[in-house]
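re: ur question from earlier - yeah i can do the single chain one, its not a big deal. heres the input i used so u can compare w yours
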Amino acid sequence: MSSDCGGSTRGDARREDGTAAAGSFRFSPEPTLEDIRRLHAEFAAERDWDQFHQPRNLLLALVGEVGELAEVFQWKSDAEPGPQAWPLKERAALQEELSDVLIYLVALAARCHVDLPQAVLSKMDTNRQRYPIHLSRGSARKYTDLPRGTISEEQASGPADLACEPTSQG
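and the output i got, formated as tokens:
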């Protein structure tokens, strides 16, 4: 199996230049988001780090990791070959930083009791309403700038009760 950005392509369609065709990549079925949540929770508990994992701390750690991810792409030209063609060391750095971002995102969602898979399904429904195909195909416009409003902000908002769970400091 060939590798893209440190991951497997599992038989994806390839272009002549050897890169995966757009839309052909698939994630492995495991670990699930719940597995990632559990692995991180166990890792943090073994080190007594839960005390440091308030939502604000997790968010700031997530932002820091996004910054590290941005560094991987910094100073690269859009004309350069994509990450699939990067040297192994750069692809490994990309894989690590993407993993860090995902781990902190899942930890933050868990601390705030947000069921990410369900939240994604809800958000995709909202996006479908905000960006109807006939108005948004090929356009980078925000839904508020489309030829006509699709839905109001109030209609698109999700559940209001998303309070984060504080960590007991004792």
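The chain is about 45% helix and 0% strand. not sure if urs matches, ping me
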